[in-house]
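Case study 2.
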Amino acid sequence: MGRRLRIMTYNVHSCFGTDRKLDPGRIAAVIAECEADIVALQEVDVARARSGGIDQAQTIANHLSMVSHFHPALHLEEERYGDALLTALPTRLVKADGLPSRGEPRGALWVEIPVDDVKLQIFVTHLGLLGAERVRQTEALIGPGWLTAPMPDDARVILAGDFNAISRSPSYRMLLRRLRDAQIDAGGRPAATFPSRLPLLRIDHIFIGAGVTASRTFVHNTPLARRASDHLPLCADLEIG
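Prediction:
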């Protein structure tokens, strides 16, 4: 039997809820409800005036007794905004860098997590709003700087984030040439994550590579989750072989 882990991806909207309340603790409570081992976050503020100047990644991690890795896709003087990975497992930051962007800057985060006798390669990203931009960003992600970079023989790849891409979009189809959609892999009806109050769009995804199997996925749709952010969290129970 392989090791079983739960991973979640969650666009936290700078911890501003649908009730317009700023509350990182509430985001941490939603994550705690999901009982995830690895957490991919998007739209995280660090030292931004609009959200009280705090390090949201570290604050949420502290609530959960986890460590955090953060990459600022947007960096304006001391204010930063981007993606994060949280976990209580051992980690090694491999890479944090930008992706080709014409609108709001976008980036990705690559963290290695050793699990038993394999090394998980976790990629976290948040792609742009424009279709052509997402295609360029996806080309970069599946290129030699990221997903096709040299990796250990025991590597297992997981890519998670807000892709702003439905299943008919070119960027989503490009990713399927390299990886599998965990919601499809697990069977059943894939569920939408956005907007949180009435989810209609499936734009948050978890993709998995060889040696990883999804036994179950679910969108965490509770009253707290519907208030905490404009996205709902997507979780996947994975078996790492």
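The longest strand covers residues 67-76.
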